[in-house]
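[agent] plan:
  1. take the single chain provided in the ticket
  2. run structure prediction with default settings
  3. attach C-alpha cells to the ticket
  4. add a short note for the reviewer (M.T.)
[agent] executing step 1
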Amino acid sequence: MLDLIELAGLTSKKAKEELSLLNDQTGLDAFYAKYLSKKGEIRMLLSHMKEVVAEKKKEAGEAVNKAMGEVSAAYEQKRAKLETEKLAKRLEEEKIDITLPGRKLTTGRINPYYQIIDEVTDIFLEMGYEVVEGRDVETDHFNFELLNVPKDHPSRDMQDTFYISDELLLRTQTSAAQAHTMCERSANPRPIRMICPGKAYRRDDDDMTHSHQFAQIEGLVVDKNISIANLKATLELFVKKMFGEKREIRLRSSYFPFTEPSVEVDVSCFKCGGKGCATCKDTGWIEILGAGMVNPKVLQSCGYDPKQWSGFAFGVGVERVAMLRYGVDDIRRFYTNDTRFLKDYSGK
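[agent] step 2 finished; step 3 output follows
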C-alpha cells in the first residue's frame, strides 16, 4: 500500500529545502512550476488518493493539504523577501542625497548682435521699409559687377573674400540683395524701400575690431525725385530712434563705387554728448555708417532708367553699433557662445 502520508511529508521537506537555496526570480518561477502548479509534485499527490485504503483517506488528504499549505506559505514568504531585497538594492543605487544643493537653471539671454538687428529692423519697418533676405553665397556679377565694381577694379582689394569658384563667392556686402531686388522689379519698375540685414565675409581679421565674418544692415530707396536731403532726413530719424533724441549727425565726403556722391555718417557721441571722451576719441563724433546717392551706373545696370529714377543707399555695421553701445572690446566675443558675455551685455 502507498503511504501517501509519509510521501506528502517528504515532498514538503524537499521543497522547502530547495526553496531555501533560491536567490532570484528565475529560480522562484521554476520552483513554482515544479511544486505548486496544476501539474506540480504537491498537487499530483492527490492523484494517488484512489490507491489509499478507505480508513486512511481522510488522514492522507489532510497530510497532502498540509504539505500544500506549508510549501505555498514558504513560497510566498520567499517571494516577498526577494522583492524586498530587489527594492532595497534599487533604492540604494538610485538614491538622491537631498542635502546637496540644487542645480541652478541658467536663464538664456539674447546676444546683443541680434538685439541690434531686431532694433534696427523695427525702426525701418515703422518707416515703411520692407525686409529682404539675401543669400550668403553670391555670384561675382551681383556682388561686384552690378554695383559698379568691374573685374580688376582697385576697390576689390578692400573686399577680398572667400571664393568657391571663379564666379561664386561668399558675399562681401549685403548690397547684392539690393541688386537682386532691382533686377527682379526692372520689368515693371516701381519704387523700392528696403533693408537687407545679414552676414558678410571678408579676409579681414587683423585686430579686435575686425572679423572675417560680420553683419550688415543695408538700406535702399529708389523713387522719382529722391535727393540727398531725403537721405539726410532718413538717417537723422534713424539715429534719434536708435541713439536718443539729442543725437545729431554729420556727413563727410567719401568714396564708394556704388554711390555718387558718397558720405561717411557720424553721430554725436552718446557717451559725452559731443564734449569729447575716450569713446569718441575726444572728437565728439563717432562714425557709424556709410551712405550716398545710388550711382546712375548701378541703376542702369539693374534695369532702372537713371533719367527717371534716383535713390540713396546706406549701410551700418551691426557689431560696430553693438560695440559702441555696450562697450564691447573685442568683436570676436559676439561669436564665442559664452553665457557670461550674454549676462554682461544683455541690457542697454
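[agent] step 4 note for reviewer: Residues 112-344 form a domain with the BirA Bifunctional Protein; domain 2 fold (CATH 3.30.930.10).
[agent] ticket updated
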